[in-house]
Amino acid sequence: MPPAKKRPRAYDLARTRTAVLAQFAHVREAVRVLTPEQLALPGLGEWTVRELAAHLTMALGGVSRAVELPVPAGGPKPETALLEWPFSTARRAAGIADFTRELAAERPDLDALCAETEARFTERVPAGFDDRLVTAGAGTMRLGDFLVTRTVELVVHTDDLHRATGLDIPYDRQALAACTRLLADALADKAPGGSVEVRVPPFAVVQCIGGPKHTRGTPPNVVETDPLTWIRLATGRARWTEAVEAAQVSASGERADLAPLLPLMG
Question: Residue 157: which residues within 8 A CB-CB, separation 6 or more?
Fold first, then answer.
């Protein structure tokens, strides 16, 4: 019998909304000081920094568009569960890339774009919002779950923007925590079990991979790393072997090799 999957983690709706807005504010401040020369630098893959910055506005813009649509029909249950979302991004990558390039070309004033995006989000998703179903790119989701995915988009691409420009951009603690936890839980959902304990202090501890289950004392198979390294591994920004060799990841035990399971997001 395969290992049972655990109940999904619960997220506080108000704190998630606050975290999304806080991280976007950090991004907006960073984008505001970018020079034309910096905006023309390579950003992510084939994107320039300008296109990467435009893409970051889509994290909030997608929520606003989803809320403006009618509530999806078909019952109270979402088509896409929160832990399924990380695995849905690869199949949508081409469409996202095309929309990003179009947005960057149509809206050259990035500061104005950020301001409009933030204002629209604040109006469409007020404090105390109704956690209803919405139609997102990945399918029908609960609005609260969709907001959790926005912390991943914002934190991951904040890191991309930092690495492309050298700017020291802050991370909202709650946004970083939600991003770390969702990706850790996605790993446990992908490879359920209790033979390996993955620690990402101070935000997440999960058990994964089938085999002898640890119940007491020090686990025989332990992986430990910091939040940003974990996020880079989970999204393909870093490679497992290189991270272990650089002592960015501690992996002990014969089963503590996550390389076959990474990255989680394409």
Answer: 27, 44, 52, 55, 56, 59
Distance CA 63, CA 43 (A): 24
Q: Measuring CA to CA, which residue among 165, 168, 180, 64 is closest to residue 116?
A: 64
Distance CA 203, CA 178 (A): 8
37: CB partners within 8 A, 6+ apart:
none
**Residues 1-36: pLDDT tens digits?**
555 566 789 999 999 999 999 999 999 999 999 999
Between CA 67 and CA 12 the distance in angstroms is 19
User: Strands (DSSP E) along the chain, which ranges?
Assistant: 42-44, 47-48, 133-136, 139-142, 196-200, 204-208, 222-225, 249-252
Q: According to the model, what pLDDT value does residue 78 have?
A: 86
pTM value? 0.94
Best CA proximity match to 223, nearest among 195, 251, 201, 259: 251
Residues 51 and 13: their CA atoms lie apart, in Å, by 30
Distance, CA of 211 to CA of 188 (rounded, Å): 13
CA distance 241 to 257: 9
Mean pLDDT of the chain: 94
Q: Tell me the domains of the chain and their CATH numbers.
A: 13-177 (1.20.120.450), 179-261 (3.30.1050.40)
